[in-house]
Amino acid sequence: MHRTLLLAILFTTIFTSSFTSRANSKNKVNDDFRIELPKIIIADIESQIIIHSNVDLSKIEGLNIEINGVKVNGEIGKKQIVIPYTFHNKENLIIQIDDLIETNNVSPIPLWLSIVPPLIAILMALLFKEVFSALFIGIFSGTFIIYSYQGISIFIAFFKAIFAISDTYIISSLTDSGHISIIVFSMLIGAMVNLITQNGGMQGIVNKLSKYAHNAQSGQFITWLLGVLIFFDDYANTLVVGNTMRPVADRLRISREKLAYIVDSTAAPVASIAMITTWIGIELSYIQSAATQINVTESPYSIFLNSLPTRFYSFFTLFFILMLIFQKKDYGPMYKAEQKCRTNSSIPDKTNNIAKMSELKEMEISANIPTRWYNAAIPVFIVIFGTFVGLIYTGWDASVWSNPNMEFSKKLAFIIGESDSYLALLWASLSAVLVAIALSVGQGILSLQKSVEALMNGFKTMLTAIIILILAWALADITKDMHTANFISNSLVATNISPQLVPTFTFILSALIAFSTGSSWGTMAILYPLILPASWTVCHAAGMDDLQAMNIFYITVSAILAGSVLGDHSSPISDTTILSSLASSCNHIEHVRTQLPYALTVGIIAIISGLLPAAYGISSWILIPIGFIILFLLVKFFGKSIVENKYL
């Protein structure tokens, strides 16, 4: 077996080496000139042919260059000439430099094939319900297509494609300083969350608030409030709130289904609109990648802030829960579950669902750990305040701040827009981790060794997200090299879709993918680099200027995230959905069945009273209150009051 493996490696090396030497020798005209064709040639997309010279081109007059008999001009430098050229079909490319002629057989990749990698990733995710293999196969399909059109055998193209995944796309993703910053920030936030859980700080916040729960209404409200306060991580939110409030909910006759719904529907929606979370680094990365493709110079954090007001689904979900609580009404399967719990004297058995049990155990703390709320509040405050200070410091412009003709909000927006958000996030998260360690060790709650172990376990919790990130970056690079955004943009322009409909279309597509895959992050990884550039192109094709196009761009950013949240926390295979069932000890199928009608209700209102009118220029300050009113009226007229059993 070892001999067979060695022979396979040897043959692969020989084939790869022979291909490389053949490609290099083909590019030589003579000792003075060398022609470099694009590494990846996409049909109907302008690329560049570069002529390298060993002599000083500025001293050569009247140099004649022809491609297929047509004289061409290019940008002449001292040692090279850059010629813009668009390949259309397979052709025998004849390049003539004065009396020197070179012939190349060129097979451009059809533009429509550029949609194959992300499409395969989506289909594989839907088919196998697993995002890692889906992203990997999507990347492989892209590299395989690229090498299949370079005049080599399918066998060699297969191995070249495998090698390119690691030595080209994954490595390039990891050598980007912004990407590394995001990975480090995500690991630090995961470490902080785990440490403030292990030192009892998170439990202290829960204990502080849970004593104010005196009846079913106040119990549900405290659960909602805890879900909002633990905003920085959806996993921590789900596990801590659900596990802690479960005995309180049982005592107050709140159904496990309602508890699981509140826990699940405050976790991801809160994390998706809070400015400092384990999500922010990932989202900034996707936004930056898309902004680079369309040459938008606005900083990713500024785009994030401008997109916040249009994240209608998240805002409406949080408000909808409050309406159900304060009007003491429910409808659909949730009404039956709540009514049964209030009138039945028995307490529901714990669910037999053991999925994600390891995550639940990691959140448990020793009985002798003191639960002091400030041990969590102080590090969280440092992250929030430190990030804000870092943004101001890195983006500070004295001339803007001292401008008397500019409003304070505009000054602040400009400074934050010019800031280095990655640096600010790193400073804040590292400071918070150090303070959390100092609080844990200084009070004798945890030893230094235990604190470091908690940090290491926190790092591990982010491993899944980081692997998804790396694969997503690699897939984004593939789609960028293959100009997938151009294909989608051209297709949308050809169908004459209105730019105002793009956010709604995006929201629905994002929700469907996230529901089918159970991954909001996987959905964002696939859609952000594809849909954002496409929305920009569609807007300009419709005659919009940059300001109008940016409005649609901001809303589309929100639509991808909000749609992925809707699909994710409605999906029976989603991590957060399973964790919510587990932490609340609710039957998993019952949780999904009772939550889905509520999620769909809010999703429809988010489209009708949010995305559609916002795309036509109506302010979020108007739309959000209108959405709140509609939700209030829906609960009032369609909800049914829960009848309490006064004998229990």
TrEMBL record:
A Pfam family that the UniProt record links to this protein: Na_H_antiporter
Source organism of the structure: Ancylomarina longa
Occurrences of domain Na+/H+ antiporter NhaC-like C-terminal (ranges): 276-609
PANTHER family for this protein: NA+/H+ ANTIPORTER-RELATED (PTHR43478), NA+_H+ ANTIPORTER NHAC-LIKE C-TERMINAL DOMAIN-CONTAINING PROTEIN (PTHR43478:SF1)
Signal peptide: 1-23
Domain of life: Bacteria
UniProt membrane topology term: Multi-pass membrane protein
Transmembrane spans: 109-128, 135-159, 179-197, 259-282, 302-326, 373-396, 422-446, 458-476, 496-518, 525-543, 549-567, 598-616, 622-639
GO CC aspect terms: plasma membrane
InterPro entries: Na/H_Antiport_NhaC-like_C (IPR018461)
Primary subcellular site in the record, as a coarse category: membrane
Cell compartment(s), UniProt: Cell membrane
Name the UniProt record assigns to this protein: Na+/H+ antiporter NhaC family protein
Keywords assigned by UniProt, alphabetized: Cell membrane, Membrane, Signal, Transmembrane, Transmembrane helix
